[in-house]
Specification:
Blueprint (H helix, E strand, L loop, with lengths): L3 E8 L3 H18 L4 E5 L4 H7 L5 H9 L2 E6 L14 H11 L4 E7 L12 H4 L3 E7 L7 E9 L2 E7 L4 H16 L4 E6 L5 H14 L6 E6 H10 L6 E4 L1 H12 L9 E5 L5 E5 L16 H13 L4 H16 L2 E2 L9 E2 L2 H10 L8
Parallel strand pairs: 1-2, 1-3, 3-12, 5-10, 8-9, 8-10, 13-14
Antiparallel strand pairs: 4-5, 4-11, 6-7, 11-12
Helix pairs in contact: 1-10, 1-12, 6-7, 8-9, 10-11, 11-12
The chain binds nicotinamide-adenine-dinucleotide.
Nicotinamide-adenine-dinucleotide binds next to helix 4.
């Protein structure tokens, strides 16, 4: 059988550190479970701007299209930050997502019992939080045209456009129902029905799609009300589906329940099995180059890769269990450190996970 092909884009800042961890776990788990996987490293973001003048080259897009999956670190940093630049590292990620048609960003948020003390929520509120946010990723305000700086009524201004087509809403909402079928069978659709025309449209389409899934409980909620309810009652939610901008904010809000952005994996999925896996966090310039980044978000993204691209749920479970045991055994990077636990760097945390990664059960 041909090997699985994974394009690996470390990116900038802490990206290369956490990707080194993810790649090591990927290799180890693939060997343990008898899979052949070829990883090919490619530049993206600021690293690509420095070498090629663009944040994502045509070759990288083609390599990603030819591969079975992409594993991405994070891009960006102060070196490439200026309101007047021609291009930004983040545009490289947007191009890749768009080129691969990755419309569904899946962000699981699970609060680990061992990290309850790190959560900004009270333990009795955070305990048991286990939800998934499905964010529409390649439509809406971040991509709508026109999108430009222009003169408005004789003075400088800027325009972004929020646009959604029926097919775009339908496919992400369907994904949410399919995802919920493997979980607690509850879908919440989040919109701004009361002030946005696109919100009213979204709600109408979501309600129609919901009728196709009578065995899954469905409701809709306003984005602002949900932002409050999410923090007040985080255990109430199962699968939450929403448009691009709200999903961006809400998933970061929910992410903090886990104690650190460094704990949050994600998958971005399209049709025909296309997929990109990445930690939710950015390139963390404040800790870049120190070897102290938390690699668990990337390692958990690798678990998602095993589950959803390689169709190896046992290997995915094994990686997740190894992370759980590592936390239970008290290993902590600085972002999740508490008194009485063991402070380790990125490399030692990765080694601790690998040491706890068990292969397939014998027999
Ligand atoms: N997909 C991506 O590549 C992506 C996503 C978000 C932000 N960014 C970019 O990253 C840069 C920094 O953005 P930001 O500071 O707003 O967000 P960030 O996620 O990089 O950092 C926010 C805070 O969380 C901490 N943090 C993040 N990941 C961590 C980890 N793995 N271990 C320990 N601590 C961690 C950082 O130290 C920082 O204090 C910006 O250029 C932004 O555009 C890129």
């Amino acid at each position: 059988m041909n090997p699985w092909r994974v394009v690996v884009t470390p990116g900038d800042g802490i990206g290369p550190d956490v990707i080194a961890s993810g790649a090591e776990v990927l290799d180890h788990a693939a060997r343990s479970f008898g899979l052949r996987v070829v990883q090919t490293e490619r530049p993206l973001g600021g690293a690509s701007i420095d070498r090629f003048g663009v944040p994502c080259t045509d070759e990288v897009v083609q390599d990603a299209l030819d591969a079975d999956a992409v594993l991405l670190g994070a891009v960006g940093g102060p070196r490439w930050d200026s309101p007047y630049v021609q291009t930004t590292p983040e545009e490289g990620v947007l191009r890749l997502r768009k080129s691969l048609g990755l419309y569904a960003n899946v962000r699981p948020v699970r609060v680990h019992d061992a990290l309850l003390g790190c959560s900004p929520l009270r333990p009795e509120v955070a305990r048991g939080t286990d939800l998934v946010i499905l964010r529409e990723l390649i439509g809406g305000l971040y991509f709508g045209q026109p999108k430009e700086m222009r003169q408005i009524d004789g003075e400088p201004g800027a325009v972004d456009t929020l646009v959604y087509r029926r097919s775009e809403v339908e496919r992400i909402v369907r994904r949410a129902f399919q995802w919920a079928a493997g979980r607690r069978r509850r879908v919440l659709s989040v919109d701004k029905f009361n002030v946005l025309v696109t919100g009213r449209f979204w709600r109408g389409v979501a309600t129609e799609v919901a009728a196709e899934y009578p065995h899954v409980e469905f409701r809709s909620m306003l984005a602002d009300a949900f932002a409050a309810a999410l923090v007040a009652r985080p255990t109430e939610w199962d699968v939450v589906v929403t448009e691009n901008t709200f999903g961006d904010f809400l998933s970061d809000e929910a992410g903090m329940f886990t104690g650190s952005l460094g704990m949050l994996p994600s998958a971005s999925l399209g049709d025909d099995g296309r997929a990109l896996y990445e930690p939710v966090h950015g390139s963390a310039p404040d800790i870049a180059g120190q070897g102290i980044a938390n690699p668990l978000a990337t390692i958990l993204s690798v678990a998602m890769l095993f589950r959803h691209t390689f169709d190896q749920p046992q290997a995915a479970d094994a990686i997740e269990a190894a992370v759980e045991r590592t936390l239970d055994d008290g290993f902590r990077t600085r972002d999740i450190f508490e008194e009485g636990t063991r402070l380790v760097d990125t490399t030692s945390m990765t080694a601790a996970v690998i040491a706890r990664l068990e292969g397939p059960a014998a027999g």
